[in-house]
Amino acid sequence: MQRPFDVDASEYPFRDHWMSYRDGMIHYVDEGHGPVILLLHGNPTWSYLYRNVIKELSGECRLIALDFPGLGMSRAPSDYGYTPKEHSEAVTEFIRRLDLKDFVLVVQDWGGPIGFNYAVRHHENLRGVVVMNTWAWPATLPAMKLFSFAIGGWPFGYWLQTRRNFFAKKIVPHGIYHSEKITDDLRKAYTDPFPTPKSRKPTWVFPRQIRKARPWLEEIEAKLPVLSNLPAQILWGMKDSAGFPPEEMAKWQGYLKLNETESLDDASHYVQEDRPDRVVASIRRVLERTSRQSSKLC
What we know:
alpha/beta, Rossmann fold
């Protein structure tokens, strides 16, 4: 299948893989050999977000990063609503069809609830997790609720997202602390997946679902205690203004008892853009910790 848009090959030098999903198509990257690392993105990003992590670790691990249907290079099924629940169903099917086992789950932004909806139901498949600026429970903080009403509202939020491509054009650069990293190529990589008003609908559904998906998020949170003994690395961008203050990090520390936490004073919401080196270090660390655990059991 042909790429729907071009991307700088020096930045994203990966071979494309495609998986049919209903009458749509999931695009993914599958690089390297070794322990399996599954990388989940959020809004309005795609596998490009993890490009520097993949390039650094592909000599040590098998890194898999998919684009959720309707984002990146993936084509959504015709009846797709772009809700996080649907994305999680797509991820679950993706994992099943690739027969992924004993893998490290890496999540950020909406990748958190999407990935943890799988994790709480299939925790026996997980080796560990890396968690960055995300959540897996109903929104309680006023800033996040206000964000949902403004950016995911109707009609203004819908107009802002679909007519102005606001999330990709404005919020992504705002969520990167190191301004020197916000190049024209980076801007293009995040705006090109959304060339038309119709194609931008997923970026509106996500913030809307902060409120609308409350029952689904409650279900995930109720099951989080099953992961209390799962090795976890928590990596938190402390300059995040998108509704993920240290209080959310502390909540993860409460649920993931076997956590090691690193807070980053020079990272905002998109930690993978600001500090890919620390994402790499967190993945290596959880692999080291779980390797030691395995050797103790032998």
